[in-house]
Write a structure and sequence with these properties.
This protein is an alpha/beta fold and 241 residues long. The protein is 46% helix and 9% strand.
Length: 241
């Protein structure tokens, strides 16, 4: 397979993902629009390499400003690769993370987890739903079905809306007949989130909503445009400071 073949394969994956999630993306956008109307927050979470998707949602040029990222340093592989895997398998961590601030009935929790079976992401969903928050699960149904069941439920079972990345078990995509490398989940997670954002923007502006979006700080007027958002959200999203 050549580089051209790989790019074609990735393009097909994204096209398939978009087609498979038309209704789910609409439902996810409904939930996010509800947050904006209520002047509430979108909480985002993940563990391991799914934290790349959380970073994509937070303080991102073109991204939503009303985002509260849930995070614990032990979940990041850069702070300890093996320990990060152990951490997301530790029951009780979700409650510790949510002790700082937890979503309520007007908020939405977005959880990225390709395997969707470890205690941390699943317990986040359970606690959020107990508090009345809706959950957008961005995962792979195939990976969840194949993964060892390490908690009382799964992300698929807990999601109010489930966006399916269509990633195959193991995440790798190359070579096609026996995949060992070229994982796709990070790319697909970002793509699914952007599909939601695009629909939120189009539908929100059509109804006259002021969709709170960051501007790049590296373009003329970016810092000035972001100043009002920083003033509004820094008090309730400490990681903006």
């Amino acid at each position: 397979m050549s580089a051209t073949d790989i790019s074609g394969s990735v393009a097909k994956q994204l096209a398939d993902v978009e087609q498979a999630n038309v209704e789910a993306v609409r439902e996810a956008a409904d939930l996010v629009l509800g947050v904006i109307r209520a002047d509430a927050l979108v909480y985002t979470a993940g563990a391991g390499h799914s934290l790349a998707a959380v970073a994509e949602t937070f303080y991102r040029a073109g991204g939503l400003a009303c985002v509260y990222p849930l995070y614990h340093p032990d979940l990041l592989p850069l702070h300890g690769a093996v320990s990060s895997t152990k951490t997301e398998r530790r029951s009780g961590l979700a409650a510790e993370v949510l002790a700082e601030r937890a979503p309520g009935p007007d908020d939405v929790l977005v959880v990225f987890s390709t395997s969707g079976s470890n205690p941390y992401p699943v317990e986040l969903c359970i606690e959020a739903r107990e508090r009345g928050a809706a959950v957008i699960a961005i995962t792979s149904r195939a990976c969840v079905a194949a993964a060892p069941r390490r908690s009382s439920s799964t992300l698929v079972e807990q999601g109010t809306v489930v966006l399916d990345s269509l990633v195959i078990p193991g995440d790798a995509s190359y070579p096609p007949d026996a995949p060992r490398t070229a994982p796709l989940s990070t790319m697909v997670n970002a793509f699914l989130w952007n599909l939601v954002l695009a629909q939120v923007y189009d539908r929100g502006t059509a109804e006259g909503l002021d969709v709170p979006l960051w501007r790049s700080s590296n373009v003329e007027g970016g810092d000035e445009a972001n100043a009002a958002l920083l003033e509004k959200y820094s008090a309730i999203v400490p990681r903006l400071k």
